[in-house]
Write a structure and sequence with these properties.
Radius of gyration: 15 Å
Helix content: over 70%
Shape: elongated
Number of domains: 1
């Protein structure tokens, strides 16, 4: 993988972790319990963010067939 692809994964990963941490701290600050239902948006957002990136850059090696 190119360095630019790795850097892109790192930046998007850091942003995703920051947003997830903010979401969880807001849940805890409001007094809500951490359950599977309350953490489902975190898991779903991870799938939505990282699966397309994985498919584009890791599985195909960045070579998209048109």
């Amino acid at each position: 993988m190119k360095m630019s692809v790795v850097l892109r994964f790192v930046i998007i990963g850091c942003l995703w972790i920051a947003v997830c941490a903010w979401f969880v701290t807001r849940l805890l600050a409001s007094g809500a319990e951490l359950t599977l239902i309350s953490l489902f948006p975190v898991v779903a957002s991870g799938v939505i963010v990282f699966v397309p990136l994985y498919k584009k850059y890791v599985r195909d090696g960045g070579n998209r067939k048109k």
